[in-house]
Design brief:
Number of helices of chain B: 0
Shape of chain B: globular
Order of helices and strands of chain B: EEEEEEEEE
Radius of gyration of chain A: 13 Å
Shape of chain A: globular
Structural class of chain B: mainly beta
Strand content of chain B: over 45%
Largest sheet of chain B: 6 strands, mixed
Strand content of chain A: over 45%
Oligomer: heterodimer
Order of helices and strands of chain A: EEEEEEEEEEE
């Protein structure tokens, strides 16, 4: 059974940093591209970032480019999101999602339960 | 930047067919996906590559994609299908989601 478990969310002050983690199991992690998708409370889905199977290419939404960094450790079956210079606009549930392919172009076929990031003073 | 447009809401009677559209420039040239999200739950992929259903997704869910419009069709809609639905496509190396459609079954 595929499982994606996010952690690291919480309350953080504006301008500070936070690192999210996603522990994957139940599939061959290194065979899949991985993504972070966020959803502000009561709002729609917003893609944040994606990373190919071998970390050879990463993509970012314009709203986070230069502030967020995605990474993965295939040996640990883990995905990460380093978030810097956080603002209230970054408040959202952050989902880890598995791609159906190792590269770009696939659907997101499994999702974690999400972790809530709240940016507030 | 690439945009996908969905109607905010669609209503359907139980047992009838619901159609949810997603519009984007030359969307038919891309692979469209659809996700279902119920309140308090994570999204679930229901259609990928425009027309394919993942295992475990009921046959009443189908998709089409041509021109500038992708369509999610739910035949014989059931109360359990009431949810938010999001279309998604790729634009170069970025993922784009539509704004979402609230499907009400009444």
């Amino acid at each position: 059974e595929v499982q994606l478990v996010e952690s690291g969310g919480g309350l953080v002050q504006p301008g500070r940093s936070l690192r999210l983690s996603c522990a994957a199991s139940g599939f061959t992690f290194e065979d899949s591209a991985m993504h972070w998708v966020r959803q502000a409370p009561g709002k729609g889905l917003e893609w944040v970032s994606g990373i190919r199977w071998n970390s050879g290419n990463m993509g970012y939404a314009g709203s986070v480019k230069g502030r967020f960094t995605i990474s993965r450790d295939n040996a640990k079956n883990s995905l990460y999101l380093q978030m810097n210079s956080l603002s209230a606009d970054d408040t959202a549930f952050y989902y880890c999602a598995k791609s159906s392919t190792s590269s770009w172009g696939g659907g997101l076929d499994y999702w974690g339960q999400g972790t809530l990031v709240t940016v507030s003073s | 930047s690439y945009e996908l447009t969905q109607p905010p809401s669609v209503s359907v009677s139980p047992g009838q067919t619901a159609s949810i559209t997603c519009s984007g420039d030359k969307l038919g040239d891309k692979y469209a996906c659809w996700y279902q999200q119920k309140p308090g739950q994570s999204p679930v992929l229901v259609i990928y590559q425009g027309t394919k259903r993942p295992s475990g997704i009921p046959e009443r869910f189908s998709g089409s994609n041509s021109g500038n419009t992708a369509t999610l069709t739910i035949s014989g809609t059931q109360a359990m299908d009431e949810a938010g639905y999001y279309c998604q496509a790729w634009d170069s190396s970025t993922v784009v989601f539509g704004g979402g459609t609230k499907l009400t079954v009444l």
